[in-house]
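Handout, section 3.2

Students often ask what a structure token actually looks like in practice. Rather than define it abstractly, here is a full record for GDSL esterase/lipase. The first block is the sequence as you would receive it.
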Amino acid sequence: MEGIVYCIVLLMVATISVSGETIKSVSFIFGDSLSDIGNNNYFSKALAKANYPWYGIDYGNGMPTGRFSNGRTISDIVAEKLGLPVPAAYMSPSTNEDVALKQGVNYASGGGGILNETGWLFIQRLSLSRQIELFEGTKFMLTKKIGEERTEKFLRDSVYLIAIGSNDYINNYLLPVAADAWKYSPDDFSDYLISTLRHQMTVLHSLGVRKLLFFGLGPLGCIPLQRMQTQDGGCQDNLNQWAVKFNSGTSKLINDLNSKLPGARFRFGDGLAFFTKLIQNPQQYGFNNSDTPCCTIGNYRPTLSCLAAASLCSDRSKYVFWDEYHPTDAANVVIAENLMPTLSFGHENTTTPASAPAPASLPSPAPSASPSPS
């Protein structure tokens, strides 16, 4: 693994010189609560926030940062493994063009989705389209700072990660009051998401994005929130099949965009099969609980279970899930390591674009792991 990471760093960390100062390429992050590092903290009316205990207990000084985990997000870990700085939260007042040049920017927003209508119940959040608009603003600031030519090279050499789509199902399509739930069949809804994503990725390419990794959906039906809604506490297989359908369509989309957009080196990171194996056989990866959250209020399982009054499991490193939706820091490390090989963008090829790997199907169902005592 270390050899793979080293080769990736050599391929991806390019430099430019501005006024005698060397500027390295960085990463830009788009997504939802799986990647949000505190953007939603700056929205006064946002309901999707992680700015209270026990979030962040294993990050830095143990205080909440806005990350929806006890520690790091997958994007944090990927940046670390690539030797890149962790990007700054776009909404932070201290994030300006100088910070963007040195660290990159994270636009991810808890509750956000591919669709603008997704996450409306959280009141304030940034959809992917809005995040792209903010990135365009960042590009404008950088152009004023270092000029058009240097900005284009800087953006071309930087890395872009997108992890989004789960809210479009969980906090939109699965809500009986959502218009999309009445308007689309599951297959038609997946097509709607992918057609929207096609436009969004094409816009990103027009703004200078070349090295982009899109993380596919995980097993939506196996997160604790969905399992608690079944009689036996098992996974909801129909939701997992929707994730398979979406990942398949996104992988084909990325291959198509690579063949049509000049210089595009877009990649699809499929962690669904691995994440499913992690949930089915947690002991194989050093965990002993994969079906209940570490942070929860006893047997009372509201949507927002990790509140200040919640109790924590005795060993956070042994739980796959931190709350009803999100993995623990330990699980994020394992998932990120599994995705790292996908990040080998290789050299630009304008004649024969590289294909995204075909998304894996779900492994055969296995009995769910029994929770261990906290």
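Discussion prompt for tutorial groups: Confidence is low (pLDDT under 50) at residues 1-14, 349-354, 365-374. How would you have guessed this from the sequence alone?
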